[in-house]
Amino acid sequence: MRLPRSAALNERLHAAVPGGAHTYAKGDDQYPENLAPIITHGHGAHVWDADGNEYIEYGSGLRAVTLGHAHPRVVNAVRRELDKGSNFVRPSIIEVEAAERFLDTVPTAEMVKFTKNGSDATTAAVRLARAATGRTPIALCRDHPFFSTDDWFIGGTPMSAGIPQQDVVSFPYGDLAALETVLDQHEPACVILEPATQTEPPQGYLQGVRELATRHGAVLVFDEMITGFRWSEHGAQGLYGITPDLSTFGKAMGNGFAVSALAGTRDIMERGGLHTHHERVFLLSTTHGAETHSLAAAIAVIDTYTEEGTTDRLHALGDRLAAGIRDVTTTMNVADHVQVRGRASNLVFATLDTDGKPSQPYRTLFLRQLLGGGIIGPSFVVSAALTDDDIDRTIEVVADACGVYRKALDADDPTPWMGGRPVKPVFRRYV
Questions:
Q1: How far is the C-alpha of 240 from the C-alpha of 199, rounded, in Å?
Q2: How far apart are CA 248 and CA 121, in angstroms?
Q3: For the stretch 328-345, what's the b/e string if a residue is b when 16 or more beta carbons lie within 10 angstroms of its beta carbon?
Q4: How far is CA 297 from its chain centroid?
Q5: Exposed, middle or buried, 180 (CB in 10 Å: 0-12/13-18/19+)?
Q6: Which of 129, 260, 316, 363 is 20 to 30 Å from 400 at the Cα level?
Q7: Cα 112 from Cα 102, distance rounded (Å)
Q8: Pairing state of beta strands 138-141 and 111-115?
Q9: CA angle 256-258-264, nearest 5°?
Q10: For residue 236, which of 212, 190, 200 has the smallest C-alpha distance?
Q11: What are φ and ψ of residue 208, in 5° steps?
Q12: Max Cα-Cα span within the chain
């Protein structure tokens, strides 16, 4: 498989853009050498690259495009707003409509403020928590891979160059005793975590987190960038019946359009407003936070989810895909090494070596075989636009990939099938 036009475009990107992409997770280092396609367009669950290749896509837009590319309901809603203007000196009527529609859908929240990305929303939540409690430390879940581009999070990753020491402590997911120790020793302003990730929360865990945060006077923040809408249209908080003090939403909310949200209880959120007796918090003030077409996209997404049962469809597609992959990995005798994990609406895959340890070289082999079969994606996260034929084709490609994987395991060396250097983790100190 050769991608000459994509290769030339990648060179141009690296000359103009640090990292060659505007999101590290989209970098060409995340793909096998010389197999990092540059996308020209997409429709539904399919995308096309600059070399004319068509792919079935997973993890679309880093989990943002859940309805499929160019979804007609979303596109038509956006088009209706474009001719009206996109940004004004005062709030537009669609800001009222979008806020009320969001709060109707996420009834555990009492107020909402929109912005353009998840990092700004989570940092705003941290700022509110610090103002509300008068404390500085932040307690975050170490098992969740990403919260923000801001210093309070990136300072704890291997890519911490240029960031001073941050007052942040971490705790493992699923361990209430460990969290209680952190709360006892550090008295943090907030506890921030994703309500769920690759595994379901242990029985009673989220209830316990809620109780511990309340008892210790810490603000409970749920990062629902991924779980929001994918777990249910009410968020994971609605599914599990837990009300956080603050929560953040994004990704699926705009089906690819730039919109995210900070939501929460009125008494905390209003500290960033005009009806408070407390010292005011400079919360979120973004020129483009209320672009009309992005809010129109959000309303269309919410309506689609609630009226068409999109979350149920995502789970049904994921269940079908996971079952098929598990069947072929068992048949090909690689079930201990190629594993599909997570909630059906948010499937990821693990590539393990002969010792059962996560392996970037084996991941490279696997991704290379998928790309050669017309499948692109760093995960198996489904979109609602996938068809049964797409799922069947994916399972066929995975079966072929598992045949090669088995050969590499038998040889105890994936190198002959990697095609070059291994793919790399996003967070690393040096190139």
A1: 14
A2: 6
A3: bbeebebeebbbbebbbb
A4: 18
A5: middle
A6: 316
A7: 8
A8: unpaired
A9: 110
A10: 200
A11: -65, -40
A12: 69
- The H or E element that residue 56 is part of is strand 54-57
What is the pTM assigned to this prediction? 0.96
The amino acid that residue 50 corresponds to is A
66 within 8 A of 384, measured Cβ to Cβ: yes
* CA atoms within a 13 Å half-sphere pointing along the CA-CB vector of 423: 24
The DSSP 8-state label assigned to residue 232 in this structure reads B
Tokens 């991924």 -> residue: 226
In angstroms, rounded to a whole number, what is the distance separating the alpha carbons of residues 52 and 46? 12
How far apart, in whole angstroms, are the C-alpha atoms of residue 127 and residue 143? 22
340's enclosing H/E stretch is strand 338-341
Q: Which residues pair with 262 in a beta bridge?
A: 113, 248
Let me know: does 376 contact 357? Beta carbons within 8 Å.
Answer: no
Tell me: the pLDDT tens digits for 5-35?
A: 999 999 999 999 999 999 999 999 999 999 9
Measured on CA atoms in the order 124, 128, 131, 137, is the torsion positive or negative?
negative
Tell me if residue 233 falls in helix, strand or coil: coil
Whether 199 contacts 342, CB under 8 Å: yes
Is 357 in a helix, a strand, or coil? coil
Residue partners of 23: CB distance under 8 A and separation at least 6: 62
Report the DSSP beta bridge partners of residue 43: 46
And the tokens for 240?
Answer: 């599990």
By the 8 A CB rule, do 228 and 258 touch? no
Structure-block tokens of residue 308: 């068409």
Q: What is residue 32's predicted lDDT score, i.e. its pLDDT?
A: 98
Buried b (16+ CB within 10 A) or exposed e, 12-30: ebeeeeeebbeebebbbbb
Chain segment 276-316, per-residue pLDDT in tens: 999 999 999 999 988 999 999 999 999 999 999 999 999 99
- Mean pLDDT of the residues in the chain: 97
Kindly report the backbone phi and psi dihedral angles of residue 45, in degrees, each rounded to the nearest multiple of 5, phi listed first: -100, 15
* Three-state SS at 254: helix
> Is-contact 374 53, C-beta < 8 A?
yes
Q: Which two tokens stand for residue 126?
A: 């941290």
Q: What are 352's strand-pairing partners? A: 358
DSSP letters spanning 278-332: SPP------TTTT-HHHHHHHHHHHHHHHHHTHHHHHHHHHHHHHHHHHHHHHHT
pLDDT, mean of residues 91-108 = 96
**Percentage above 90 pLDDT, the chain:** 98
